[in-house]
Amino acid sequence: MARRAGGGPVVRAARRPELRLPVLERYEQGGLEPDGDYDGLEFREADFAGQDGGGARFMDCALRGCVLDETRLSRARVLDSALAGVRGVGTDLAEATLRDVELTDARLGGTQLHGAGLERVLIRGGKIDFLNLRGSRLKDVVFEGCVLVEPDFGGARLERVEFVDCVLRGADLSGATLKDVDLRGAASLEVARGVDRLSGAVISTAQLLDLAPVLAGELGIRVEG
Questions:
Q1: Cα separation, 18 vs 2, whole angstroms
Q2: Helix, strand or coil for residue 176?
Q3: Cα separation, 116 vs 97, whole angstroms
Q4: Are 35 and 54 in contact (CB under 8 A)?
Q5: Closest to 35 in 3D by CA, of 21, 58, 56
Q6: What is the CB-side half-sphere exposure of residue 23 using CA atoms within 13 A?
Q7: Which pLDDT score is estimated for 165?
Q8: CB 74 within 8 A of CB 52
Q9: How far apart are CA 77 and CA 74, in angstroms?
Q10: Confidence (pLDDT) at 5
Q11: Strands, E assignment, 60-96
Q12: What pLDDT does 67 receive?
């Protein structure tokens, strides 16, 4: 699907995940294991705080209401899975792969997703503070109805990424590469750094006016009167 931005070039829309989970088996085996293999399981209200699931694979799984404080999931692969109502501070998903994933109503802070790969991911509702996506790759990702406080997209590559009815506060786009990124639907757009990297994105006229002081500062323009 493609959309035309105000009569200009076509903006390619993000492809959303089409998640159809099978009948899931309740996970009753306690904690996570490094390089564990989890298939067709439901994790409900589990407390994984401080546990190590680095390199694990989650396939056709659902995590509902789980606690992920300081949980290590670096290089994990989360595929065709749903995460609902998860909460945690300092969750480590560095260099993880998320593909065909729905993340809904999350309450997260300081989540580490640097160097990660996200493809066909929907992040809906909830609030995520200080999300670290430096050097990550986002393709066909939708942020919908969520609040992102000071997300760091430094050096990341964003392709077919949409922000719909979400709040974006203090975003860092330093060194980022954007292609077919649609920001027009954002309820609030605030770029703290890297406003010069917005090439490849489409914004609304109102957003342009809001960003004007930052753009002027970036270009060294002094505005008086």
A1: 18
A2: coil
A3: 6
A4: yes
A5: 56
A6: 0
A7: 98
A8: no
A9: 9
A10: 60
A11: 62-64, 77-84, 87-89
A12: 98
Enter the tokens of residue 71. Answer: 């949980």
7 Cβ neighbours under 8 A, 6+ residues apart = none
Residues 203 and 74: their CA atoms lie apart, in Å, by 33
Cβ(166)–Cβ(183) below 8 Å:
no
Mean pLDDT of each 10-residue bin along the chain, 225 residues long: 60 94 94 97 97 98 98 98 98 98 98 98 98 98 98 98 97 97 96 92 90 77 73
What integer pLDDT is reported at residue 1 of this predicted model? 53
Alpha carbons 53 and 13: distance in angstroms, whole number: 34
- DSSP label at residue 154: T
> Alpha helix locations (H) across the chain?
205-218
Query: Distance between CA 93 and CA 28 in Å, rounded?
Result: 23
Q: φ, ψ for residue 48 (rounded to 5)?
A: -105, 20
DSSP secondary structure string, 5-56? STTSSEEEPPPPP-----PPEEP-S-S--TT-EEESEEEES-B-TT-B-TT-
